[in-house]
Write the structure tokens for this entry.
Amino acid sequence: MLDIAVIGGGAAGFFAAINIKIKHPHLKVAILEKTKTVLGKVRISGGGRCNVTHACFSPKDLITFYPRGKKELLAIFNQFAPSETIQWFKEKGVELKTESDGRMFPVTDSSETIVNCFLNECEKHQIKIQINYPVQSIEKGEHSFIIHGENEQIEAKQIVIATGSSNYFWQLLKTFGHTLVAPVPSLFTFNIQHPLIQQLQGVAIPNVSVKLQVEKTLIKKLGLNAADLEQKGSLLFTHWGLSGPAILKLSAVGARLLNHQNYEFDIALNFCDEAKEETVLNVLNAQRKLNPKKQVSTTSIYNLPSRFLESTRSNDSN
């Protein structure tokens, strides 16, 4: 019998199993993976280089990168954050490097370095890895769990579920009395059909403010913070609509609201450093008086791309 069975052979499953054995070396631990290979996503992450962590060492700063769950994550990051991640890998012979944007990769620029680290640790701590073990069901006994595979069964005193967004295991967890919050899509781009957008495919604009136009009563009903429904950051025009950090953050914060709206909603965009309409009009009028023969698309107003300014001018004339 196993002491602990970790179901899921991804990064989370391996990290959990290794740390359990490091802290409790007497326990018998195994990783169960349904496919014939483990750590598949680790191998392809970061373009095959594996983006391990981010060079942000203050938990309070780190949580600002997460649109939701900041309070819950702060407690976790106060225990284990990028500094601890770097040290964890260093103790196992893996050095990380920081790139200009803060992303941290193994100095080898190869995800196999991380994969091999996990596999070596499993061998060192005698953690069994069982591949080709798709879990069919889990039966809870008086003192243990019976994990049924296709052709055999494994008994474990405790189990760790590390299967990511598997709906099968979500439903399975419910049968053991766990309460799950129904998931909804998050971190997605906005599909918007508009002549102006279609002309601007590939154009990126920094410092854009994007706000969901929603009634206050609905915001209150869903328990949301109105201030969160306006996000700032870079915006990218695509052939299907809008993308970029500002849009992705807004989709995350407003995930449940957008789902409630069946993904039909209005947004307001400010491309001019949050300046009010009256201020922008004053700037435009001043530019016109200063350079009456100059096209607005050839100015550097609010650092907007000339292609964007030209498209808005063309769209207004149609």
Observations:
- The radius of gyration is 25 Å.
- The chain has a mean pLDDT of 90.
- The chain has two domains: 2-175, 190-317.
- Residues 190-317 form one domain.
